[in-house]
Amino acid sequence: LKFMRARKLLEPELAPSNEGVDPSLLEDDARAIATFLHHSKGLSKRVIGDFLGEPGEHANQVRLFYTRAYDFEGMPFVDALRAYLTPFRLPGEAQKIDRIMNCYSARYHEANPAVFSCEDTAYVLAFSLIMLNTDQHSTNVTRKMTEVEFIRNNRGIDRGQNVQEHILSAAYHDIRRTEIKTTTEFDELSQHELISWLAHGSVFIKFTHGRVGAFKTPHHEIKLWISADKLCYRNLSKRGKAAVPEKQLPLSFITEVIVGAKSSVFRRHGVARQSTQDSSSVAQGETGEVPSDRAYISLVMNQRTLDLQAGTPELGDFWGRYFKQVVERSRLEATARGLALRAQPRERLMELATKEWSTNILPNWTEMRHAEQTRLLWWEGIPSSERGRVWLCVLGETEKGEKGGELSADAN
Fold first, then answer.
1. What single string gives the DSSP state of each residue in 356-385?
2. Higher pLDDT residue, 115 or 397?
3. pLDDT of residue 276
């Protein structure tokens, strides 16, 4: 908001305590901020929730205009609550939650005055549903609340009267069936938070390519993270022994992402698809539960796969989506480079192509030979100065060509 005010996209900051400030200006400012929070993409849902829960008159006006943007008329209570809470995440501070839920309950009662006798009923039921949501979907709660218990706990909340039982029953089953997300998901991070999160990385189980029985264990833990344009990982199973160097691979080497236990490596180690897998054949978590098929990812690089198992299906979903975006971006960039080369005069095209072959493709032939960029340049014609080295690599006539090492000067 400070950034927008500095560039006059919003009015200079005003405060109700300022003497001589027209209240209508404060309202216009609050309305503009509420609209910004509603419609701007890429904002952190956690930060939006914290902002909406702030104290003060101006914050209250923002919260009010933000909530008024919702039309709850005729909506079931849980549907309205879900729609309201989805675009942001409830803050952890009780007072902030109280301010937000007060605003929601007032708006719902205003739109549906016949459902409850007063807005306080909507307020109490909203909090009760949030507690039920935690009860039903938290792994730390072993004994789940029953429908009978939920209805009993909400007796007399409507000014001493009972809320209609069919409303409470429908709300209970709706929450039990589908969780209201009240914590930040991976794909709801702001760009800055996402970069920080990727740099911190996650722990995966990596499955080996060797034959079953060739290793003491068919898999081991690794720490995987993103640094600049490289995928980095380190073997965690050798901690306390000799220092294990980290491995780095350019993200552009990833040509395909396979979600699920579909690769030959997983099959070789007895990891079947979720529909057929049994708990004795897969790497299990600390709880002994069989992971969802969504927890498995295979990154295809140079006709081999990096086969990983995430700690949770949600973590697998996040990394799978991220790597798919990386592949799509690499394809678009390769196509753009090819189009840019074609737009150049023939002499300039050959000059750029020669540089690309000599500095990027040939020194990394093993990794680059199947890349989209290499195929595009191949069809444009191999520069005469590099033609001999390229064909030696293709035909496998150099000692180091197929190993991806640097080609000798004699290869020309």
1. HIIIIIGGGHHHHTT-HHHHHHHHH---HH
2. 115
3. 34
Rounded Cα distance between 346 and 136, Å, is 66
Task: Give the separation between CA 321 and CA 256, rounded to whole angstroms.
Answer: 12
Q: List C-alpha distances in Å: 277 to 107, 272, 273, 283, 292.
A: 49, 5, 6, 11, 10
Q: Find the helix or strand (DSSP H, E) in which 313 lies.
A: helix 313-342
Whole-angstrom distance, CA of residue 247 vs CA of residue 249: 7
Per DSSP, the residues of 35-91 read: HHHHH-TT--HHHHHHHHT--SHHHHHHHHHHHHT---TT--HHHHHHHHHTTS---
3-state secondary structure of 4: helix
Is-contact 340 380, C-beta < 8 A?
no
Helix ranges, 138-236 (H): 147-153, 165-177, 191-200
Q: Identify the band that residue 165 occupies on the pLDDT scale cut at 50, 70 and 90.
A: very high
The whole-angstrom separation of Cα 349 and Cα 377 is 10
Helices (H) then strands (E): counts for the chain: 16, 7
Cα angle 149-155-161, degrees, rounded to a multiple of 5: 160
- Check if the beta carbon of residue 307 is closer than 8 Å to that of residue 267: no
- What DSSP character marks residue 158? B
Q: Among residues 402, 333, 406, 323, which one has the least CA distance to residue 371?
A: 333
Q: How far apart are CA 286 and CA 205, in angstroms?
A: 13
Q: Which two tokens stand for residue 186?
A: 């991976």
More confident residue, 15 or 267: 267
Q: Where are the alpha helices (DSSP H) in 154-287?
A: 165-177, 191-200, 264-268
pLDDT digits (tens, 9 = 90+) for 285-306: 433 444 567 889 999 887 788 8
Q: Is the pTM of this model over 0.70?
A: no
Residue with the two structure tokens 């690499």: 330
214 pLDDT higher than 50: no
Helix (H) or strand (E) holding 387: helix 384-395
CA gap 249, 253 in Å, rounded: 7
The residue among 220, 224, 243, 240 whose CA lies nearest residue 232 is 224
CA dihedral (392, 395, 399, 405) positive or negative: positive
